[in-house]
UniProtKB/TrEMBL annotation:
<keyword id="KW-0805">Transcription regulation</keyword>
<dbReference type="InterPro" id="IPR050185">
    <property type="entry name" value="Ub_carboxyl-term_hydrolase"/>
</dbReference>
<feature type="region of interest" description="Disordered">
    <location>
        <begin position="103"/>
        <end position="141"/>
    </location>
</feature>
<comment type="similarity">
    <text>Belongs to the peptidase C19 family.</text>
</comment>
<keyword id="KW-0788">Thiol protease</keyword>
<keyword id="KW-0378">Hydrolase</keyword>
<dbReference type="GO" id="GO:0016579">
    <property type="term" value="P:protein deubiquitination"/>
</dbReference>
<dbReference type="InterPro" id="IPR001394">
    <property type="entry name" value="Peptidase_C19_UCH"/>
</dbReference>
<dbReference type="Pfam" id="PF00443">
    <property type="entry name" value="UCH"/>
</dbReference>
<feature type="compositionally biased region" description="Polar residues">
    <location>
        <begin position="129"/>
        <end position="141"/>
    </location>
</feature>
<keyword id="KW-0833">Ubl conjugation pathway</keyword>
<dbReference type="GO" id="GO:0005634">
    <property type="term" value="C:nucleus"/>
</dbReference>
<protein>
    <recommendedName>
        <fullName>Ubiquitin carboxyl-terminal hydrolase</fullName>
        <ecNumber>3.4.19.12</ecNumber>
    </recommendedName>
</protein>
<keyword id="KW-0539">Nucleus</keyword>
<dbReference type="InterPro" id="IPR018200">
    <property type="entry name" value="USP_CS"/>
</dbReference>
<dbReference type="InterPro" id="IPR028889">
    <property type="entry name" value="USP"/>
</dbReference>
<feature type="domain" description="USP">
    <location>
        <begin position="147"/>
        <end position="524"/>
    </location>
</feature>
Amino acid sequence: MDWGCEHVKAVATGSNASHFVRDYAKIVLFLLKTKKTPNQAPHNTLIDMAFKKTDIKLGIKPSLDPLACVYCYSCSEFVDGQELEKRRLKVLCRWRGLKMAPGSTNPRTNGTGTNGTGTNGTNGTNGTHTPPSSFTQPSISSTRGLRGLVNMGATCFMSVIVQTLIHNPLIRNDFLAQNHSLGLCALKRAIADGTITYSDFCDYYEELPETIQRESRDLPLSTLITWANATLSPNPNNCIACALDDCFSKFYASATVQGYGPVSLMISSWNINRQLAGYSQQDAHEFWQFLVNELHGSSLVRVEEGLDEDRGASSDIPVQFKNTWDSISESGSCSDTSDCTCISHRTFGGTLQSTATCNGCSHTSHTYDPLMDLSLQIPLKGQASLSSCLDKYTAPEQMEYFCENCKSHESVSKTLALKKPPVVLSFQLKRFQHTGSSSSKIDTHVEFPLYLDMSPYTCSQESGLVYELYAVVCHHGSLNTGHYTCMVKGRDMHWYNFDDVTITRVDVQQVLAARAYLLFYIMHKI
């Protein structure tokens, strides 16, 4: 019997089995009645079992449906087995007045429906004219992505960065278009490491009923992903992009607008970067860089040469399946980040040109570096503006240099300018300074505009390169005991302040008065 892990099985089938079943049913019923499914972080809802000496506690696993999972402290993760699911569905069916089909794990109606021509309120075919009683239409607020994030223990740094991505139109559209999904990601990785091969899929396809084969041949990608989901049991805790995909579905496809705990994102971050593990405060800018790098990396899963040579495909397998398999295997090849087509580089990627002019012979040389964001120095005291910080960043810098043209050591003048401006321009205002063994925070207010003309800071200096502000991240308090909030321009053109689960509407003056740490601008005309 599948209980999810050996520790849960030991409790569920041991001397405390009756307590386990009873308490599990109570938790499921409690969640159904209080509708807390995806809204709270697990550590806020963990409830001790009757047998307190075990390492098992009950908690909520984020899901669109009410779902009580067991959190095993020995495994340090949520576990969900078939036996748990059977007991959950039993409680669910009793609560909704449904019956279970014999030997099935799916609830069905009791046959008393009155709408349509079928006995269950259907139209006599595989469909229905009336939505199920559990169906709720996403609210207007939900489809706008206005939803707070639960602070799961000093995770405000994570929340503000997620909000900036959720409301970034390029990132949002990419995820909502299903360009990255859990099943597709698992399939890519399994192909890359040789866990599955094309011949494995052929064996599966040949065993399908002929009617399903006919339906599947026109949907090769969907069929491959369905097979991967069933074969590989994808885990969102192993991939940042999968965890973010889960966040986007909860923000834009959920009927609730209450606070959401991004558990998968937190766990996957911990699994990938151990420095993020635990409940200590982290730097929001470093976490942003981490997410952007992981989104880039998730697109580079590539099969090794010769790894999938056993393509003994049957002639009965439609050619479109092999073509789709090959396209998945070959996707993500990118040796030069300037040509990368991943969502990170399409959104934030640009090119910075460094120009060195010899003061002796006036010879000029250029070097080019990839750009994802700009980190700007700010003064310790007094007034400052984003433009003045940019002026200082791009101002000529005198340095010693060996000139290849005049073959002498001369002072050179070095300047920086944007060669290829990114679609979304991100700024870090360096508020945290570290000198020797001490660290401090700079509280200088930096003025920033709603619309930023970046033309003076480009190589061509052609007019018309205007960016529009859409997100501001602020750090409040001291260096070690601070708190992050953010303000984001919503799809309704209003500004909103996000403070963990609390969302308040703010006016433009409040936005401009903020002591910004991170600023996000998007091209006004793309």
